[in-house]
Amino acid sequence: MIKSIFKVLGYGLLALATLDIAARIDDAVTEGAAFWQPYTLDALFRPSEFGREGIPGKRYGKWQMNQLGYRGPEPVPGRINVVTFGASETIGLYESPGKEYPRQLETLLNANPSGPQYNVVNLGLFGMRIGRTSYLVRGIEQTQAKVAIIYPSPANYFGTNVPLCGQQTRPVASDMGPLDYLRIGGKAEQLFKKHAPEEVMTLLRQYGIWRATRETTLLDRVPESTIEALKADIACAARAAEQAGARVILVTHANYFGSALQFKDMPMMLAWRRFYPRLKEGGFLDLEHRTNTAVKELGVELNMPVVDAAASIPSGSIYFADFVHFTDVGSMQMAKLLEPIVVQLASKNYINPE
Amino acid sequence: MLFNSIEFLFVFLPIVLGIYYVLPHRGQNAFLVLASCVFYASWDWRFLAPLLFTSSLDYWISKRLETAKEQNWPAQRRKQYLLISVVSNLSLLGFFKYFNFFAETLAQLLALLGLQTDIHTLNIVLPVAISFYTFQALSYTIDVYRGELHATKSFWDFFLAVLYFPHLVAGPIQRASLLLPQVVNPRKINAKQVTEGLHLIAWGFCKKVFIADNLSPFVDAAFSNSAPTGGTVVLGVFAFTFQIYCDFSGYTDIARGIAKIMGFEFTLNFNLPYTALNPSDFWRRWHISLSSWLRDYLYKPLGGSRDGTWATHRNLLITMLLGGLWHGAAWNFILWGLYHGTILVLHRIATPGLVRMDKVMRVVPGLWPLLAWASMFLMTCYGWLLFRATSLHQVGQMTLALAQPLDGMDWAALQKVCLTIAPLVLVQLIQWRTGVLYFLDPQRVPAAVRTVAYASMVYLTLFLGGQPQSFVYFQF
User: Fold this and answer.
1) Is B150 a catalytic site residue?
2) How crowded is residue B71: how many other Cβ atoms within 10 Å of its Cβ?
3) Cα A200 to Cα A226: distance, rounded to the nearest angstrom
4) How far apart, in whole angstroms, are the C-alpha atoms of residue B172 and residue B473?
């Protein structure tokens, strides 16, 4: 009996090893990935004085870092530089390669070959809070950027009551678990997410939320101190960018749902809530609304242009691949909103309508 | 509901197997009728009507034929019953499959003669699998008429034999003489059958999902190219040669595998067809259930090879032409059938010379079979061009482009196609060398090797599969 169990286990391990080796060969052949090293999105980044930063030249799937450690191509010398600063919406998640909004913005800006030419340098980092100003300043200084676009991701401030700006940043170690070293695990997860029916995914999310919240108090809305912290960080980042020599564009945060949550969008809301289970569904759009109000107030206070992406990008699946991340069409819409303001700021002809 | 769909694999099949295994024999049969109806109705429940009509008619006629035999009715009367079955089945098939084709062709012919006609085509929806189940039901009546089979007493047994979901949609076309006894008698399922069935299912999915579906974009690109070059045609036809084989044989393997784990045995439908050395050899290996059906129910009744050389050639051409037409109502299928008929005839004519050549060429061992194999493979490939083309104009255009076969060749795409078919080539080399199709037979292959092979198949299927496509033969 015991011998049989060991036999089955042995063959199970052999099958797992075969699958993992097959995954490694697949990655090596199709994407040029190193055979032995971990190959995940997380492997694009390393701990640094800014918390985390991109590893120059590193690649994972469609994400290719340039020699400065930012997603996208190498900046072309002699062009006007623009930096985009934000989280996953900025670095790009679901868009086709080269279709994240910084790239689409660059394409629009350079559409006229006889006009001024631009580099749009994508400083986006997954999960980054906008108060990580030292990272922004370094990006501006590295590129001598004339314009900085600040696109805050409010949900990253959930659970925070103090601004990040001004705090000592410690290197953040990679959060890769042991399973990340097993290449087949990530692939199996992606496969499941791709093919599992939406109803099953919703059930799993509901279960995950229930498990995470059964012993905690739920919040109807985030406390005001969170909004204050976020607002302080946006202001801090904007001022730091200006001091570093860039003119700043603030952008309100757009999402899949628009201004009101509809019943049909509940599965998508659950997909979002899974990351922040303590906040009830209604609290998310409230957070978005209050953040965007704060952004607009800051625009007036700091005399900086505000692009109201929240009001200008329609809700729904044409523009959003999930709750906040753009589709190719959505990122093009974002680029179209930004392009005229960037041109005006870069040519120093911008007059704030306020 | 396709075999490669989530609902089939994760809902339908587990439920069916789960219930099937706990039922007694008669319960199993009744349940399989129900499950097969659900499976077939998942396309369109109305499709059940012609299927029910065909099955009822052939059941009734077979009963009459059996009575006629027992009571020594005149041969003429028995023939009349057979005729009713043949005419009804073929009329049904003809109406659904060929009405519009012949109506349009007639209108075009009359227009060529300067006669304007007002022939209306009908908005006919072709019932899935009609070509398969019509042939299956027809063979039953003919076998009973010939006295090779006794008519079954139970309609439901016969209905299940026609309707049984693994073979219903795209074969293999099961002879009633083989399938009915398995329906009527209790089935025993042993571990060997289950292992072999799972092996067939795994390899079938790998062929369909990894090879055929990944080749599909190359084929579609080549056959939608309005200005094809030699290179695009060679690439497209080469890819289609393997796409259609992996698609159809993959389906068949899955069907045979599912049947096996339920205790049924289906006939072999493919036996390494691309290792064929001549056209006759090819048709003994490709779509065996159809080619043997055509041989037994068309070629032989036409006279087969009994009435001299020219009659044999005529019979071959007619059989292959109708075999081509069976695939679909289009000129390219007719051309494909004629092409294969012609190369079969030419091969028969050339056989004495080829035998002499074989003796001469034996000085270099292996050269003659290699030449025979290569020429047959190239002829088969050209046949697939005729089969896949969407019009006779395209056939001409692509054939002309073949004059410069490497012109405009996308070498990177060719490399991808070769990489995609590599597992098939490897497996078939093993099957060809060993002469055993069950290439992971536990009796011959160590467990560790089987584990690695199955895990590799799972990876190729799950993680490297192409964009899901319907099975090519579903349209027939």
Assistant:
1) no
2) 7
3) 33
4) 11
pLDDT tens profile B148-184: 888 888 889 989 998 899 988 877 888 888 888 999 9
The pLDDT value recorded for residue B151 is 87
Q: Please give the Cα distance from A151 to B196 (Å, whole number).
A: 58
Q: Is B356 exposed, middle or buried (0-12, 13-18, 19+ CB in 10 A)?
A: exposed
Asked if residues A323 and A266 have their Cβ atoms less than 8 Å apart, the reply is no
The kind and range of the H/E element at A118 are strand A118-122
**Distance of CA A348 to CAs A149, A246, A344, B146, Å?**
15, 11, 6, 96
* Nearest CB to A19 within list B6, B447, B458: B458
B127 vs chain A: nearest CA distance in angstroms?
Answer: 29
d(CA A298, CA A304): 8
- State the Cα–Cα distance between residues B317 and B319, nearest whole angstrom: 5
Cβ-based burial of A263 (10 A; exposed 0-12, middle 13-18, buried ≥19): exposed
| Closest to B391 measured CA to CA, from B108, B143, B156, B141 | B108
CA separation for the pair B368, B354 (Å, rounded): 10
In angstroms, how far is the first alpha carbon of chain A from the final one?
81
pLDDT of residue A37: 80
Contact call for B455 and A23, based on CB within 8 A? no
- B310 at A interface, C-beta within 8 A: no
Nearest-neighbour CA in chain A from B456: distance (Å): 7
Q: Between residues 392 and 451 of chain B, which touch chain A (CB distance below 8 Å)?
A: 447-448, 451
Which residues of chain A neighbour B451 with C-beta distances below 8 Å? 11, 14-15, 18
pLDDT of residue B207: 95
Q: Is the torsion defined by CA of A31, A35, A40, A42 positive or negative?
A: negative
Please name the member of A15, A26, A187 whose beta carbon is closest to the beta carbon of B455: A15
- Which residues on A lie below 8 Å from B452 (Cβ)? 14-15, 18
Please give the helix or strand (H or E) that residue A85 lies within, else none: strand A80-86
B215 to chain A, closest Cα gap in Å = 17
Options B167, B327, B340, B347, the catalytic residue: B327
Residues 6+ apart with CB under 8 A from A22: A184, B455, B456, B459, B460, B463
State how beta strands A118-122 and A147-151 pair: unpaired
With CB atoms and an 8 Å threshold, state whether B464 touches A19.
Answer: no
Burial class (CB in 10 A: 0-12, 13-18, 19+), A180: middle
Low-confidence ranges of chain B (pLDDT < 50): none
Question: Cβ separation of A19 and B451 shorter than 8 Å?
Answer: no
Minimum Cα–Cα distance from A20: chain B residue: B459
User: Min CA distance, B393 vs chain A (Å)?
Assistant: 38
Spell out the residues 6+ positions from residue B378 whose beta carbon is closer than 8 angstroms to its own.
none
B455 touches A at CB < 8 Å: yes
The confidence score (pLDDT) of residue A302 equals: 92
Spatial contact of B472 and B327, defined as CB atoms under 8 Å apart: no
pLDDT of res. A98: 93
The answer to whether B89 and B80 are in contact (CB under 8 A) is no
Tell me if B219 sits within 8 A of B239, measured CB to CB: yes
Rounded distance, CA B166 to CA B39, Å? Answer: 9
Q: Low-confidence residues of chain A, pLDDT below 70?
A: 348-354
Residue A26 with chain B: CB contacts under 8 Å: 459, 463-464
Is residue A335 within 8 A of residue A249, CB to CB? The reply is no
**Both tokens assigned to B182:** 């398995």
Cβ distance B184 to B161 under 8 Å?
no
Residue in A16, A18, A191 closest to B463 by CB: A191
**Widest CA span of chain B, in angstroms?**
72
